Each structure stands twice: as structure tokens, then as C-alpha cells.
Queue: 4 jobs
Job 1
Amino acid sequence: MKPIALLPGRPWPLGATWDGQGINFAVFSAHAQAMALCLFDSTGTQEVSQLMLPAHTNDVWHGYLPGAMPGQIYGLRAHGFWRPDRGHRFNPHKLLLDPYAREVVGDFEWRDAHFGADRRHPLHMDTRDNAAFALKARVVHDAFDWQGDQPPCVPLEDTVLYELHVKGFSKLNPQLPQALRGSYAGLGHPASLAHLKRLGVTSVSLLPVHYALDEERLAALGLRNYWGYNTLAFFAPNPRLACGQDGLNPRDEFRAMVRALHAQGIEVLLDVVFNHTAESDGTGPSLSFRGLDNASYYRHPPESLAAFENHSGCGNTLDIRQPRVLQLVMDSLRYWVESMHVDGFRFDLAPVLGRGDHGFEPGAAFFAAVAQDPVLSQVKMIAEPWDIGPGGYQVGNFPRGWLEWNDQFRDAMRGFWLQDEHGARTRGDFALRLCASSDLYQPRRRAPAVSVNYVVSHDGFTLRDLVSYDARHNQANGEDNRDGHGHNLSTNCGIEGDTDDAQINALRGRLQRALLATALLAQGTPMLCAGDELAHSQRGNNNPYCQDNETTWIDWTKADNDLTDFTAWVLSLRCQLLPFGNRWYSGLTDTLGLHDLSWLDSRGQLLQGLAWQDNSERVLGCLIGHPGRARAPLLLLVNPDAAAHDFLLPAGVWQAVLDTAHPRGAARWQGQGEAPLKLQAHSLVLLAAAGNKIALQR
């Protein structure tokens, strides 16, 4: 066999790049003393060659292999000091995955040999070689026929987010071929697209699709990290979510899904996890980053470099302060936009990305890099604005241009409609959150649309369970029901779970519809959690991150079709009328004497002073003199109480276009103002003044 020799190659781009005549390899490590490239046979199990990367430029080790072709499987071995006390954990006995891997080879199994330290003697290096069963990278040549695909570029004021899990969304949908269910191809199937179009959502927000691992504890219990918030490879799509339709690899199956969604005008956003990796804490394995340059990739307490800062709750925190770690994040994001055609991102525990030496910084390097980037500055960027580190709650503090999940909207609206342990939320709470939380965003000159309004997300009870269970039921998660949020809000139902009692079910239905309508009509950007429009239940499990089974998979055979029709009608009204524009309202009058926004009590009088905090009456009216898209004023009425109330309407001719007391939201009332309208218990009604043109309800 002819000896293999590496040429110096280039220090860029990072990763493995085929140029048509050979492959360039480049990997960052600021503290390694040498870096070995290990080549494997086509099965990925037999190491056939180990070559030292011959060049070292600006902390990048690099080499060029002439004649090598896409499909080559490889791994890395980093040589350096084993000094955990100084932050260094180099162990050349461990094969490491390239952080820039586009495709990951192998099925990971937890073995002691994956750990750089001896598990019985943590200060000592483990000298067992794990190459035969370590994860490896495959060199790819990215070429895909996009067939003229273009991004939908949905304007922010028209955006309706739909959060879903690729597998759970279609796994049990009988309208799909069995082979496609639960996959990228399943989401791109016409039956899935038809449901999304029927609803009227504009943008799917996918739970993580990056290559991720199951934690060792879950694997021992026979469970999986179903949600996928445990990333190992930030450039590789998770093969578990691919079905291999038409022989496509996971990358191309994902791309075909994106192309199909774009053809329907639907954007694709990814939930990304750049706050930690799957290597866990100081007792975790050396799979990639830890072995390549532990001191650079992770944050360590200055007083104990062997330990890891843990602002994620998962054992480690990526150190975005380091330029090459920041580059990794930016390169990954650009790859998914440019090569995979995604339209934006939702960042898990996003304050980590803005943590400097002394806490969260809105002007941190990551935010500055995104703002000036010609690619990333043009896509949607959404923050989950909290982590578990010091000063980690940063709702309202992200830079301009960023959207934020607004948990204050969630909590206020749940408390208003369902009541919490502290009693009912006031009309003041409701009004403040309904109008895009002006206290959080207006002083910072941020637009109302940056408030992502939701009452339910993947993390917690489903909407159906929110109105059905008083406490969590998480026993199946293997943590003795200690995980997840403790108690739910009181629904005044008095019992848990499903029941044949028509009155109780009717109440639950009303509460679901009131919560949905509030979130979908409010000022800001609405987000719907997949399955809530179908009354999907997880049987009270409010933390099913490890339940890859019927607990989390949407059961389409039990869908509440009335609730689906209701949701579609509310979104149709939002699209047609856009009740609130993407501008801040002042309450002032225009030249015709019409208030742009005013708040009324049940007598039709302006709500003022202490009445905002008076819970003896919680009925409220919002008169929108200048809606976002409607041609004439709109009137939104809410009654969270258990009894019906009369509401005296303002002068004019009004037509009810939505009544959440009806299972499908149907509303037929119309008449003159200055007369009372019966507002049913636990209901919301939207009325349009004469002059508005509204398409017939679907």
C-alpha cells in the first residue's frame, strides 16, 4: 500500500472540505501540542491510517489529503497536557468528532472508554482506545437541487409561529404513508402541509434537529432525549428524524422538507442549543469539544479550572467569549441559512450567548456579530430570554431586531382566565400584556412584534392538560415526579383527567378557546404549540422531554375538529383584520375625535384609576380605533368570570365576528350600539364596526 502523505493545506474553512481533487482538514485547538487525523474504512469501524496534521496557523491545525473523495470517514486525536486542574483534558486515546462534521457516522452507546478520565479515579487519564465505537465524521459534498426555492420572507406583523417536534407531529397521522411518519419527509408531505395551510400559520418553529445524544441516565432507564436539547454536532441534522425516502441522506431529506414548506409560503425556523453540549459536566465523556480544547470551548470558574460553569442546568456552558467558539456558532447559523435554507432561529437559554465576564451584556460580541452579518441580520432571531445563571432572567433586554418569548404574557393570561394560587389577575395585568407588554419593550424603542405571545409551549402542559390537571403527572420520567413545574393553575373544575361530565368538558372547551383567542389576537407575534388546536393531551406529563412515545406523539384520530376549525377562524380574522398594528398605541384622539385605543368597563365607560386593579368586576372591553389592517374600529370584549355579563356597546353599528363561547367561534350577533350584549361566562367576543369587510367563516 502506497504511504499516505498530507500536504499543509489551508487553515480555512474549518472542518473537512472537498475541492474536487482532495480534502482539506482544519480544526481549531489553541492548547493542543499536536493533532492527528484518523482515517477509517467504509464501515467506520476499522482505523486504517493515522496522520499528523502538518501545519498550524493561528491556533488551527490543518492538512490536505490529495485524491481523497467525499464519503471518507475520519476522526481526530488531540495531543497535549492532561491537567484538569488547569482546564486541559487532552487524551490521545480518545477519538474525537470534528465540531464541523456535516454527517455523523455510528450509533452511540454509553461505554466507560468514552470518558477521558478514569471513572473510578477521576484525576487519572483513561488509556483505553474507543475508536472502534466512537462517533466519526463523514466528508460530504453538498449539492442539492433546490428547484428555484426562495425564502417566503413573511413580514413580522403577519408572522404566526407554530412550534412542533418533527417526529411527534406526524408519527401517528394516518393520512401519511407509514414509512414517512415522524420524519422530515413526513412534515413535508402534502397531508402535513394541508393542515398547516388550513390553520393559517406562517412559520414552523422546529424543536432541535441538530445531532444530539441521549444522556447516560436516560439510556440506563431505556428512555431518550426526545426533545433533542443535548447537541453534539451543530452542522449535522439528526438522522433519527429521517426516514431515508427515495434514498436521501438526512441532509437532503431535510432540504426537501424545507423546499416543500417554502412552496406553500411557510417559513422554517430552528430551535438551536448553543448554551451547552452533550459532554455534560466534569465527570462527562470526551467526545469532541472537551478533548479538542476543553479550556477554550467551555466556561470554567477562575478559582477552579477543573470545574465547569453551569448556566444551562446541563453541566457545562459554551464560552462564546472565545473568538473561535463564537465563530463556530456563527458558521453553524450561516450554514443552516445558506446551505439548508432555513429562515430563522429560536435560541434556547439565549442569555448564555450574551454573557461576558460580568453577566449578560446586550452589546456582547455575539449580538454585534449577528447585527452586522449580511446573512443572519436578514432572518428571524428569537430568544428564550432566560438561563439559570446569575442575572439570567433578561426578558425585554435583548437588542433591537430580536424577538423574545414573553413568559409574562403567558403567566398573566393563564392567571386571568384560569386564576392562580395568588388569585385572579387584574384587568390591568391583562391589558398590559395584551398590548405587547409596553413596559418591557417600548422604553427600549423595540417594536410590539418582538413580544412572542404564547400560553403554551413544548415545555409544560399542553393546552388541554392545562385546563384539565391541577398537578403534574411525570412518574414515567424516572425522577419520582419531582421534575417539571409543580402545580398547575386552578381551573375551578374540581376534578382531574377526562370525564364524561358534559358541563366540565364544556368549561374546558371554553377555557381552551379563550386562551387560544387571546394569544392569537394579541398585539405582538403569536405562537401556537402543535397539537393544541387538536386538544392533544400528554396525560398530565408537563416535562415529557424523554418520552419518545404515544405520550408526546399527536394522536390525530382523537383530534377535536371543532377546536381546529375555531383556531383556523381566529387566525383568519387575525390575517384579515390584524386587530393591533405593529406600533405603540397612545390612547390619544385623532382629528375626528377617535381614540386610537381605549378601555371600557361593562357600562361602556372609560376604565380609569383604581378600577384597573379592582377584581370585583373583571369584564373588560378594548376599543381599537385604529386597527392594524381593519378599515373601521374593532371591539374586543372579555369575560373571565363564571357568570354571564351584559356589556353596553359604544355607539355605532357592530357585528360580532368571533365568540369563543361557541365551539367553532361562530358569532351571528349584529346590531346598534348603546345597547347591551350578553357576554357569556369564560368568553371573548370580537366585534367589527360597520365598514369592515370580512370573508365568510371557513
Job 2
Amino acid sequence: MSMGRGGGRHNPAAQGRIRMDKESLRTLRRVFAHIGDGYLGRLVLAMGCIVVSALVSVASALFLRVLIDEHIVPILLAGSRDLSGLASAIGAMGLLYIGGVASSFLYQQMMVSISHGVLRDIRNRMFFSMQRLPLRYFDTHATGELMSRYTNDADAMRQMLSQSIPHVFSSLLTIVFVLTAMLSLSALLTLVVFAVVAVMFFVTARIGGKSANYFSKRQKVLGDLNGYVEEMIDGQKVIQVFSRESAVRADFEDRNEQLFEHTDLANRYGIVLMPIMGNLGNIQYVLIAVFGGMLAMNPSFSLTLGGLASFLTLSKNFTNPVSQISQQINSVVMALAGARRVFRLIDEEPEEDLGHARLVKTDGQGDCRENAARSGACWAWETTGENGETRLVPLAGDIRLQGVNFAYETDKPVLHDVDLFAKPGQKIAFVGATGAGKTTITNLINRFYDVQQGRILYDGIPVQDIRKPDLRRSLGMVLQDTTLFTGTIMENIRYGRLEATDEEVIEAAKLANAHGFITRLPDGYQTVISGTESELSQGQRQLLSIARCAVADPPVMILDEATSSIDTRTERLIQEGMDRLMEGRTVFVIAHRLSTVQNAQAILVLEGGRIIERGDHDDLIAQRGKYYQLYTGMRSV
């Protein structure tokens, strides 16, 4: 839900108290630093065009004095029909107007180009920074709130760069040029203008401050509403299953009502400000006309009729930019609030990675080269010892947890002194109630989170010493929640290894028993899916996820409820393929369906973050403990 902010004098969002704090100024300098990085030449040219445009605005007002005093009045007094001088003056002014129009057009086009270019660069940096953030960040920030930075906040920055900042610069130049011209015409009338402008500032501070306060509240409520709508869209099935439409609608209406109230109050103050400012400008015009007429009729003053006409025009040209600066600076302040949120995302601390061990491919004779393609390769860890010598550790898939303690939140421990080992090629199964810590163990193995106490060894190397990209490249994961991307079936499977050939993708699909249903699709492997659940069943989506893991050909696999969404018949079809896929690999399986883990070499039963039982299926049944209760149905998982 994106609510755009327009610039200009009729934009209520632009009303408010002029309030540029130190943080806003720092953010503004940072925005200009982005402009200077590749767009400085265009910015200088745009500013030059603004200078020309402002000069033309003042010159057109001063031309009235020349037109009236040097051409019209002499013609009327002398009764002459010679208009050649007047025509030449109008022609010269016409050329000047054309130059002004061309300058305005050029600077607006360049500022639009600059703003879109800068926003493109900033979005790229946002996305790059977001990809480096730890998983914990996404656990604590709503998707809708993050999306708001790419949409609402980025759009506010675009408006600021393309409209607000150029208008402020143009208005400041216009004020300087017009003030110089007015003083040259009449210092007394200039004082009248200053008096009215002072009243305008007072009114803006009193009324506009209330508007700015409500607009600030509106932005917060808007962000909350965006997050709520995104959450409701994701949970629409659950809402309908439990018939919670009325309750959800009532909650949305309450939030929407808050947004309405803050927006309504902000706009009321903003809208009433413009008529007041306009009428103050009209009062100023009348005052100048009265006092100026009196001065023009007094021979002791040098103000002519043409000078009075020019001054009246200049007074309008003076109050308008003063009003626009008040509006646009507040629009800039609001945009900078969004820019701070954008830069806050860019500045977030990336996922820490102090690892140095790399995954390399070897020919088995000690001759290694950096990882390129995975399939059919012999792999090893390249690590540096304390003496600085490089050594190779064969990638076998030996995983060990030693005295591991972990908590997502400091006062809520999830794992307590966990010890386990998985020898190369073993299938290890985790069973236990929801919240027992099964998924947490796998999250620690691939370093989505780091242990607080204890350590995890991968082929004898602490996982903290392995570079995260290399660590995760050696792990294949099939999650309970399947994520597919917009593209073809072939592209979605190849996501596991981008350099895989079509033949390897098809072989992986056959291994996962997905080949059959894929060939029945309208375009087979070239069938385009959108990533939603409308085109494929949940079981088919899960089969594609398993095929994606198969094409990656990892030495260690993690299956988190991998068959939870697959019916019994489909499960039987893929069991043989899964066994082939797991052959020779270390596999961690998390399952509530205990029939899928009976052939595991070791089954670990977790309860309250502790391993309470370990053994194979027959051993645990013989112990008649927790696993026996779960398996026989005496107590449900």
C-alpha cells in the first residue's frame, strides 16, 4: 500500500514547521554524496540552468519599467505612431523568455534523470546490503516494513531530488535576485514586503507545525498498516479456514481509521494554510499599490509608473518563492526521514564471517584449485595452520556438536549442552515435540546463527573458521516451507547449481521422482511458474525443492520435514529416490512422520532442548522410552 507524496504548492504533505536537525543535515549531505558519485556534471549544468531561469524571471519584471517608461508613456504623450522601438524591445524580451523556458525544461529533465539514477544506485545498495544481513534481522523485522523502504521511502527521496531541492535552490536564487531588484526600485516599498513576509512566517510556524506533527504520525501508522496488510495477504488461507474475516476486517478498519484521522487533520491544517498565505499575498499587493501610487505621485521620490508596475510584479515573485521554500523544506525534511530509514538498512551490520577455510576441488592427488563446478568433483577444505602452512582436509561430511548451548533471546535458552556426532555417510534423524530444538540444530550447522557456548566441528574444523559461502555450498537443504521463484521449472531446479546442464537437471528430477509430473505439464521443463501455489500442488512444489537439492550434489544434506506436504503414495514413490540421493552423504532429517526415519543409523530424541535418547529404531523401541511412546502412539508428538 503505497501512498505517494507529491511536491509543489498544493501538496499538503509539504506543509509544516521548518525543522532541519543535525541528523537531517547529515542525511542530506549523504544524499548529495550519492549525487556527486557519477552525476556531478549534470547537477552543475542543472544548477546553471536554474540560475538562468531565475534571472529571466526577474528580467521580465524589470522589463515592465522599460516598456512603460521608455516606450508606452512617450508614445502616448507624443502621439507618435512609430512603434519600431517597442517592437524591438518586445522581440528582445521574447528571445529572453525563450531562453528561460529552455533553461527550465533542461534543468527539470536533468533533475529527473539524476533522481532516477541516484535511486537506482541506492536501491542496488539496499538490496546488496539486505542480502548480507543475518537471518536474525529478518526474524525481527516485518516484510511489509522492509518493503516500505523500497517503495514509500525511496519514492519520497525521488520527489525530493527531482522537485523539492531544485525548487528550493530556484526559490533562493529568485529571492536574492528579486530583493536586489526591489531595493533598486524602492527601499520603502521593500520594507512593506518584509513586513508581510514576517506575518507569513509567523502563520506558517503556528499552523504548519500542527500539520507536520500529524504527518509524522501518519507515516508511522502507514508503515504499520503496510506490514499488517502484507501479513494478512500471506495468511489469507488461515483467515478463511477459521472464518476470521470479520475480526480481521474490524482490526484493519481500526488501523485504517487511525491513518484517516492523522491524514485528515494534517491535510486540514495544510489546506487552510494556502488560502491564508494567498490572501496575505493579495493584501500585500494592495498595500504596495496604494503606497506605491502615493510615492509615484510625489515628485520627491524617483518611483515612476513603470517602476511601480515592475515592483508589483516583483513583490509577487518574492512572496511566492518564500512560501515555496517553507513548503519544500518541510517536504525535504519528511523525505530525509525516509532517507534515514533507507540508509539505516544500508548501514546494518552484515552477517559476521571471520572464516578463512575455503572449499576447493581436487583431483585426489593434492593438486587443488578454487571451487568452480561441483558435479563429479573431489572436494576438500583448504585451511591455514598456526604456522602459516596451507593444508587440505578432505571433505567427508563429519559433523560434531560439542557442549552446544544456544538461545535466540538471552533469557530463553533453546539448546542445553547438546553433544552429537554424525559420521560421514550417516543418516541422523531428529524427532521430538515442536519447539524441542530440532530445526535450531540445523540452523547452527549452516551458521544461520552462531553458538553461544560449545562448538561445532565440520571434518574437524570449527564451522566459525569456514567461510559462510563455502560452508553453505557444501550443505543441501530441503525445507518444510518450499520457495519457488518466477521462471521455468528448469530454472527453479537449476537454482541449486546454476552451471548444471539440462541433462543434469533432468537426472536430478528423476532422482527425486519429479520427472513424471513435469513431463505432463503443458511445456514440460520449460513450463513457467510464478512462484505462487496456484500452478502446482504443495507436494509437487516439494518434489521440485528436493530435485533442486539433488542437482546441487552436496556432501551433507538437511531435510527439515521434507516430506511433510507429500501424500503417502507420493512418499512411497520418492523414498527410493531419496535413499539414492542420500547414499554416501551425511544426512540430517527432521520429521514428525516417524516412518520416514526408521532406516536412520541414529535417531536423536529431543525434549526441552536436550537430547534424551539416542540409537537406531530397534534400540529405541527396545528402550520403551520417549521414542517408543511417540512411535506406538501412546503419546503424540
Job 3
Amino acid sequence: MATAAVLLASGQVPVGITVLFSLLLVGLIVCLALEEKLHAKKSIIAGSFAVVCLFLGTLTGIFHFTDYVVVESDRVKAPDQEIELQIEKDSKGENTETVKIGGQSTESAENSEDDESVQSDSSKLHFGGYEISMPVYIPGIDWSVIAIILGSSLFVDVTSRSGLFSWIAIRVTKLSRGDPVRLLYFYGIMTVVFSAVLNNVTAMIIVGSLTVVSLDKLQQNEKLLGFLLIEGLLTNIGGLLTLISSVPNIIVGTTAEISFAKFLLVAAPYVIVATILTLWLGAWFFKIKPIRDKREMVRARRLVEGFDENDGINSWTFFRFSAISLGVFVLLIAGASSLPVINKLGMGFVALSMATVMLLAFRSEVDRFYKAVDWDLLGFFMALFVVIYVMEHAGVLHAIGGLLQVVLLGVSDNPANRLDSITLLLGAAGFSSVTDNIPLAAMLASILKDLGAPNDSSLWWSVIFGANLGGNLTPIGSASTLVAVTIMHKHQVSMSFIKFVKYSIGFAAAQILLAIIYVVVFVPLIQRFTN
């Protein structure tokens, strides 16, 4: 293909460099765990490691700084070499592209069986002399996640001024009749549903905001830590429900050719059981008990009956506008992958666009909303993405995938072996707790494909469950758990890296153990009936 000719093939990374950057990754995790003792914000810790990683990455030569091209009419130039693109007619009368690089050439027929891929790549070239260039760390940042966090935070902050979230929270609180356990179950189910149809970050921001209002109204702010932590853990369970609920699902499901309906049928029973288990464990661990005393029950009912959901509404026009905007926001996020135009711009565009629409109501004083944005959270994510990006170039993630591949081959040559499924699930969960689960899922899916794992093998589900549930082991394991911690800090609830792990380890262990049993025992049975 024409554009393939201008790509630079990456060489094998020396083991010493991979070890060096692996130690840096371990150092980042240790420093984040000691955040309170270091008296430093997450963004500064991650930012410092990002600077060091970028410098060492450049020094060791693991980056390629010739990743841009200049396209002029029928000629493609790279910074340090000339690449000629010629289009000629062959003996059959078909157009043939010839790309000459340093005396070598590659050819591809436009009308061959691979015509679609050639045309697809060719259409990405912009003729007219444009230079495509950017700093090496810019493409390493997942700007979609940054846009979703920024846009959703602004949208929720502005929408809350209408009284809409207070109204919803009070209605939910009234349905619970003031019973904390019932309220926990309501918000837990809401979190799972929102995570399945929206995305984990948006679900956590919305449900977390509602939870704060409800507990404040009930004068039970001491339960905020338990509620928010459980909701953060449930976002990753909800992300398992459908093929499009998370990126690892899409990557692995597409590689294994799992249909949307089959994915839902296989994943739904686990999600239901894991949700109930997590809520039950959460209520027990955080001592969130139902009201049993009749006098307390009467007092709680009178308290919630005294709530007026209309109290915080100053403008019914703005309230209705906010309600419609919230509905549109949810629908657009849910359909972002299938709606025309929107599917190309992504969920980040939806979040930022809806935030802009809401900010128009306060167009002369938007700076107060900008000041309320958690820039530390955004800075941390950008720095963390850069670190993970460098780790990919340094071969750290490749080494992790290779290690798991060696373990799998050492356990059994049979891709359907139960011990392989357990090993892969535990490995994927462990590594996903400290690295980005997206490239890891892509690598493991590629390994399974190379091993010849059949489409109905439980190994695919081991990767799916492990990549999603691993995010519950640490606060940096997923964006939604970190958002939950950020909401805690915003409302003066103490939560450090070590404290999060201490609280979450039991939940994560129970969820992963349940996943192992489910993948080994029940997934083969379900697939047998669905095939």
C-alpha cells in the first residue's frame, strides 16, 4: 500500500531498556502509594515521571521522530528522505501505485482484492503541501478520556445549578424512604446501568453527584466514603455488560468474532450476580444497615416526606432546559458509536459540546465553572497516559504480554485448558490494575489469535473479565475509580492510594474469584447453548 511504505518499522527494544522503564513504572506506583507522605498531588508525581520517561525515551532512541510526512501533489516526502508516489497503468489497464523510498519501490493495484484498504489509506493523504507533525508525547494521551472528563464535569456542574440533580436525588431518596441500604441498592443499580449504556467516567460523575446530595439531605455524610467507593467499583462491573460498554470488550470481542447478542447473554448473568455480591459486601463492610427500629423508621419517613424537591429550582425554564439537555446528553453518549457524524467525533466531542451548550446560560461568568474544574485530575491522567505511552515504546507492555504467553504455553498447549483460563484472567487483572487495559487487551487478543484459540474458547472471556475487573484493585486501575476518589476529596473525605487498596482488595478479590468460577464453569455451558 502507498501509505504503508512511509511507515517506519520499529526495531527490537533491548532488554536493558525494558527493565529500566519497568523499574520506572514500579517507582511511579510506589510514589502514588506514598502520595500523602510525599505531600505531593497526583499530577505532580505522574508529571515528574512523565518528564523523566520522555527524556530517557529520547536518550535511548526508542522514539521515532520522523513520523510526519509532507504531501505535495504526486510526491510524498519524509524529513530525511524523498519518497516518490507514481500512479501508472499496468498491462490490465488497472491503476498501480508505486512508492519509491531510497531506490526501493512497492506496488499495489487499486482494483485488486485489497483495493478497499489501499483506497482507505490513500484517502487519508492530504494533498497540497501540508506538513503533519506534532510532539511525540501528544499522540500518547487519550484525548477522548480527557475530553469526556472535562466536558462531563462542566456539564454536571452547570446542570446542577438548575436544581435538576437535587430534584432527582430527592426523588430517589424518597423512594428509599430514608433507608440507607435501599438507597445504596438504588444508586448501585443506577451505576451499573449507566456504565453499561454510557461510559464509566460519565456514570461515576453523574451518580456520584446525586449520591452526595441524597446523603447530605439525610444528614448521613459519614456514609459517603462507602457509597462512592462501591459505586466506583460497580462502574467496572457495569462495563462488562455489553460488547460496547468498554474498549477492551470491543477489542477482544471483535478479534474473537463475538456478536453483540452473544456477548450480552454470556456477560449478563455474571454482572447481575457480581452487582448483588458487591452491594451486599459493601453494606456489610461499611456498616450500612437497614432501619429496623419502628420509631427510627417513622422518623426517617417523616424526614424524607419533609423534603421538597422543588426547593432548589429558581427557574423552571432553566430546569426544563437542563432536563432535556441531560436526556439528549445520555442519548448521544449511548449512541455515540452508531450515530452518523457523531461516531467519527466520539464521546469526548459530545461531552464538550453539551458542556458548551449549558455554559451558554452563564456565558458572562463561565470563569467560575472553569475554576471549579479538577485540573489536578486532568493533569494526572495526561501524565499517566504519557508514561504508559513510553512504556509501550520501551517494550514493557510487550514484555508483560510475552510473559503471559510463556506462562500459557508452559501450562498447556491446549488453548481451552482451565488452568490457562485462570492464569490469563489473574494476569490480565493484575497488570490492568497498574497499566492501561486497552493496549494490554489488544496484545493479549493478538496472542490468543496467534495461539489459535477457537472463538468459543473461555480464554477470550478471561481477558475480558480480567482487563475490566483489574481496575478495581487500585485507584489508578481505571478512570472511574479515580473519579470516585476525586469526588471524595472534593467533599473532604480522606482517601489515599493505600487506603483505597485496603478497602477495595476484598471486593476485587471476591469479584475476580467469582469471575474465575464463572469463566471456568459457566461460560462453556452458556456458549454451548448459544452456539
Job 4
Amino acid sequence: MFLRSNRKRTNGETYEYWTLVESVRTSRGPRQRTVATLGKLPGLDEDERAGWEEITRLLDGRGRPQADLFEEPCPPPPEWAQVDLAGVRVERVRDFGSVYVALALWRRLGLHRFFEDHVRSGREQIDWATVACILSIGSFCSQGSELALSDCWYRKTALDDLLGVDADDVYDNRLYRGLDELLPLREDLFTHLRERYESLFGARFEFLLYDITSTYFEGQCERNPQAQRGYSRDNRSDCKQVCIGLVVTPEGLPLAYEVFAGNRADVTTVEDIVDLMESKYGRAQRIWAMDRGMVSEDNLDYLRERDALYIVGTPKARLRKFETELLQADDWHAVETGVEVKLVDHPDRQGQERYVLCRSLARHEKEAAMLNRQRDRLRTKLLQIDASLKKRPQKLEAVGRRIGKWMGRNTAAEKVFEVEVIAESGLAVGLCIEEDESKLDWAQASQGAYLLRTNCQEADPVKLWKWYIHLTEVEDAFRTSKSDLGLRPVYHQREDRVQAHILVCFLSLVLWRSLEMWMKSKGLGTCARKALKELETIRSMDVILPVKDKAEVRLRLVAKPEKLAADLLAYLDLKLPSRPKQIENVVEKTGGQRSSCLGNIEF
């Protein structure tokens, strides 16, 4: 049986139609007999022709042809139906791209297996490993609170399809209990991440970066003894806060963290962090890079006692001891355009410690412009005070406060000026204003210069500078955590819940940094923020087709991504679900959990 194309010409017009024909045996030999006239079928494309050929095959009673062993299996036969085009509609549009990539990262890092092996199991409807995944992906997608995640964000994403967890089963109390289950696993998680970093990215841990930041609370936090007022890096001195010390690898991969009281001085946290890392990874020679806020002689003695190496920032006031070396034009090594370094011995610990003298052209221009601007402003204000005193003398205390106010607002220029109040009869009648040329010359000579201190035996100052400059990875991690991953503000009031919230933010930072490393390995740069913005354009949806003589057909589809997003997924070796299943209007429940409507997806 086969299809035959026919043409008929009437009154100068040509008409085409199709007939279904079968071959039969007769006494006069084989003959062809028309079974049905199918009428005019203009413009058949390949899919429509395949549909008619499928009808022919079914009518002939033939099965599907056997696929060659070395060929791809044949796709399932097409299903054809008459659809009311006026009734076609789209429902249940969900965010798909960003959560899909986050889930792929979660699995590549082996976090699904880690939590399955370590969390306790009981009579819970949804296992705590899945809850941990939901919490971390929510933070990865900038959901700062569990309440926002459960109330609106989760039901707007395709996670219910990908994880098989219905949106009604993700509510705040379940997420809060999930936080309680995660916190005891913190130390084991650090060990797991170290192993995964080593196997996935070839990371090494002889060189570690450490810095500290703070995050503030909304509320009084009376049940959290760590919530204290202190130096706020968020410019929220009105709020209580906690301090967070973060250890990362030179690649920027988060390795461990510790939470301190909000009024804890940075310099007092070093011993706790070093003890934490040594308890997990052994006491060995390890290079620590720290900012100058962590530096004290006690901390450096502590590191030397433990045979640890360090390269740390040093207060700029010590530059004065190296004025001769700074002004010399030789022995400088170019690191990059506009940056030069020089290695000099420690004046008191020769052979044991050295300084790396650095100067930056861009930093020099910035500090010079700042000094000139503040000199002009301070000189103008002091002359105005002098002119006003000559017209109307004032009390000495009031004049001292006025001078101190403007000196404090122009700290870069205050050391250059020497101001003396001229007094008569107990009143200030004028000012004697002078600029110290020697201090001005030193200020100009030291512009753009800074010092690093190290006990490493490395003789190349360029390498030492590059080791230290990796601290920008920690600073970038803090910016990402606060701006993109919802670390601030913290709404929890209990100490254990605050600790668990920070753990979830740490996990989301792990996903973020792993995405950047994944992109870097594929030659896609390291801007995860831009990549996620493109992936957010990918949506999943339900297409409802009103079918003749049947109930409505609901198809759950993933939209075809735009070219940039499609290229990004291709480079990352991620494939979107290609054959979504046809589902009923009411999705069945299996085993107390919602079954995935997008099938089993391999990452």
C-alpha cells in the first residue's frame, strides 16, 4: 500500500490530490486498486509526508524497521491529531536555565552524594539532602531568605520538575529544619570539598589566602551572643553584626570559614583559622597570604613557631625606613605595565625576613591627585578661618575645633601643614599657616608605594608580589557573597540558625566559583554573572493543545535558547531535555513525592 500523487486539469486550472493505493492479485495479473481518495493536500512538508507514510505502514500491518547496530536508534513514530489552533495556549512558565546549571554544578561537585551519605534519614516526606540542594540553589539564585524562597521563588522555577518536589511541600518550617540538619556536617563538608577541588580542578593547598568581612542583622538578635556592634564593612554601624573569616585557594575556591563575634578584632582571628586548617589538613609548611589588618608581631611569631610561611601586607608608615631604596632607580623588576617591585632585607632580621618594596604608577597618580585636591581644599579652609579671625576674634577652644574638623576631613594633606593659632588677650586673632617642604617631598616620593613582608626564601620579588595579589580573590568572594548570593542582611535571630544560614551562603559561593572555574576551562572567561544572566532567559512551560475527539493534551517543554545561551550550554557540555513527556492535567504522585515530568536528566 502506498500514496500516489494525482493531477487533474479542468478549465485551465491544475488540481492536485492524493489517493491511497494497494496492489492486489487478479486473474489477469497484479493490479492496483484505489482504497481512498484523500483530497487536496497542498504544501506537504517533510513531517507531514512522514505522517502519511506512517499511516501507510500501519495500514499495511508492518512493524517498525529494525535499526542497524551501528546507527542511532530510530526516533519514536510521530503522533498526529487535529488541533484547534484557536485554543492553543501556554501555561506554567518557569525559570529553567539558571536552576538547571546550578543543579549540574551541585552534582558535579558530588554534593548530592555527600548529603545522601551524611544526613540522617527518618520519616521525613522529603529527604534532607534534597532540602540542602534547594536551599543552596536558592541562595545561588540570589534568594537571601528562606521565607522568600518558599513563598514565591521556588514555585516560579522548574526545580519541582527537576527534583520531583512539589512547590506546596517547600515551606518555611521545612527549610528551617533543613538548616538544623546541615549545620553539624560543616567540618565533613570542608574535607569533601578539598577532595573534589583536587580531582576536578587540580587545586593545591600549600598556598592559602585569608581575609575577614562582616555581615549585619535585621533585628536585635538577643539570642545570639556573637551578634555585636563593631567595625562595619557594610557601613551599617547601627546594626549588630558577626565577622566571617574565609580561607580560599589561589584560584578563589572557598575552602573553609569561621564565624566570629561582631566586635572581634581582625588581628585576633588568625590563630583560630590556622588551628582550623591544621586540624583538617595537617601541620605542614604552608604559605599564608594576609592583609595588613591581620598583621601583628604576635601573629607572625605564632606562624614561625609552626613552621608556616607568610607574605603579609605592612603598614605604610614603615616605608620611611626604606627611603633610600625607594628613591634608587636600579634593582627594580617590572611585574606588569606600571608596576615595579624590589626585594630588600629586613633591617633587624637579616636572612630570616625580607620586604618586597612595590610601587604602582596608577596608584601614584591616584594618590597624587588626592593629595593635591586635599591640599587645595585644606589651604582654602585655613585661609578662610584666618580671615574670619582677623575680622572677629574667637575663643581658642572653638578655633581648635574648627581646625581639627578640617584636618580630619583631609587626612592625606594634614601632615604637610603646620598651623599655629595667634592669640591676643585669650582670643584667637589669626593663624600662621606653613607647609613643611620636607614632608611634602616625602609624601610625593612615597605616593603609589607599599610594603610586603615575608619569610619565604623565594628570591624573585615578582613571584612574591603575585602570590600576595591573589588576595583580590578573597575580596571578590566577599563581594559576590554579599551582592549576588544574599549573605546580607541576616534575618535569623538564633545563633545556630545564623551559622547554618552562613553555611548555605558558603555552599552557594562554592557553586559560583566552580562555575567560574568550569567556564575558564572551556575558554569562556570567568564572568559567572554574565553567563547566568544569559541562562536566565531559558524557560520551561506547558503547551496545551485542544485535540479533536480527545481531552486536551498538555506538553511540558523547555524553550529553545537564544544563540548565546545555546552556545554557552554547548561549551559547558550541557544538554537540555529534548523529549519532554506528555502529561495529564493532574500530575500523579508517586512515593509521596512528585515525579519529574522532564524525565531522567543526565548531568
